[in-house]
Amino acid sequence: MAGPVQRQMVSTSNEIPGHRIVRGLGVVRGITVRSRSVIGNLGAALQTLVGGNITIYTELCEKAREEAFELMLQHAGEHGANGVVAMRYDANDVAEGVTEVLAYGTAVIVE
User: Fold this and answer.
1) pLDDT 10s digits, 83-104
2) Which of 20, 26, 51, 81 is deepest in the core (most CB within 10 A)?
3) What is the pTM of this model?
4) List of domains in the chain
5) CB under 8 Å to 62, separation ≥6 — which residues?
6) 72 vs 11, 59, 96, CA distance in Å?
């Protein structure tokens, strides 16, 4: 089994600059589901009173995106890819306080 795709070989466009796509391998994805803790919600509620960036939620979102991204890189590597193009994020509420974060794109072989 191949290792994960390298971060620098991921692009939100349909190409990876300096490389030629020789084969598409299909859609790959990484999914994580996160919930906010009661303590996190309390801390965020206090931060909303002050205004500005709610850092507790920012950190939660960043961790969820990072985890989904890493899982997508692994999934692409399992398919034999060495690159991912058209990479995107999506998020959906699964239940109250529970969010799914999805990183997805097209796995490719580039040279």
Assistant:
1) 999 999 999 988 887 889 999 9
2) 81
3) 0.84
4) 7-35+63-110 (3.30.110.70)
5) none
6) 13, 20, 25
d(CA 83, CA 11): 8
Return the pLDDT at 46: 58
Which pLDDT band holds residue 35 (cuts at 50, 70, 90)? confident
DSSP, residue by residue, 9-67: GB-SSSS-TT--EEEEEEEEEEEEEEE--HHHHHHHHHHHHH-S--HHHHHHHHHHHHH
Asked if residues 105 and 74 have their Cβ atoms less than 8 Å apart, the reply is: no
Give me the amino acid identity at 27: V
Question: Which residue's entry shows tokens 């919600």?
Answer: 41
d(CA 72, CA 21): 19
pLDDT in tens, 48-65: 666 666 677 788 889 999
